[in-house]
Specification:
Structural class: mainly alpha
Radius of gyration: 16 Å
Number of strands: 2
Number of domains: 2
């Protein structure tokens, strides 16, 4: 990961304080991305300790997410209708997030 990309991700996390960062599990490069994100989070916790005390988030979970259904949905008619003005990759990312939110509710 390039330094500029890492800085943008760090700034995004500091500003928006997400609870979870999802990494689409599509290939072996995802493992490297997961490690890079963990290093960014470690840097935040080391250099910005107020991040934990300033928010209810604390440490941010970095988890893998299955992209199988999202990959199918990104080119579906429903995706075109809901998000037709967005590129397929954005539709896929939104779908991964939505599936991550609703999956626990679907498991008996």
């Amino acid at each position: 990961m390039q330094v500029k990309d890492a800085e943008r991700i760090r700034d995004f996390i500091l500003e928006h304080r997400p609870h979870v960062v999802l990494v689409g599990a599509t290939n072996l490069h995802c493992k490297q991305l997961h490690g890079d994100l963990r290093a960014i989070m470690d840097h935040i916790l080391e250099h910005h300790p107020q991040f934990i005390t300033r928010s209810d988030v604390g440490d941010v979970d970095i988890v893998y997410a299955d992209e199988t259904l999202a990959a199918l949905w990104q080119t579906s008619a429903a995706a075109q209708q809901d998000m037709g003005d967005q590129p397929p990759l954005v539709r896929r990312a939104v779908s991964v997030e939505l599936l991550h939110q609703t999956t626990p509710a679907c498991v008996p």
